[in-house]
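Morning F.,

Quick status update on the modeling queue. The single chain you submitted on Monday has been processed. Sequence for confirmation:
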Amino acid sequence: MMEYLRIPSFDDFRAQQIFKSYSDTFPVDERRSEAQFRALFQHPKVKVLSVLKDLDYIGYLIVWELTHFVFIEHFEIFSDFRSMKYGSEIIGDLFKQYSHIVLEAEPADLDDTAQRRILFYERNGFKVIDQNYVQPCYEVGKQPLNLWLMANWQPTNIEWIKEEIYDIVYC
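Structure tokens below.
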């Protein structure tokens, strides 16, 4: 069984582990600076969650609880624990807690890894809801990204979802 521990501050040792992996895994344009990452812990809509399985820290989630949906900004299984079906188990747990979940993913036609990631999310209940989504740049000097927006339901107003993500997550 998975455990999800909310990390209270950047000073927590688990936040340090998460930030190191986050910095090593995600390209610079796809992540926050250290100062921006630190600020997440003060934001009332954000939960930085460390994921435990059998007393091992296996990964993390950065989740935004928005008006009518939850936005998963980052989700990573640490490299030592990949290919063990933990990602599917975590998504199953999220579905039990949240009925409406949105996330961004690199387009399937980008490369084999991106294609496998899209297929993983689709196998686990997500559908592509927008193939023309642009993730705003995190800060000056970083590039906006063409991504796909995915959700575990079919929203009636995708523009409203994008607007809330832009206004709150990327402000």
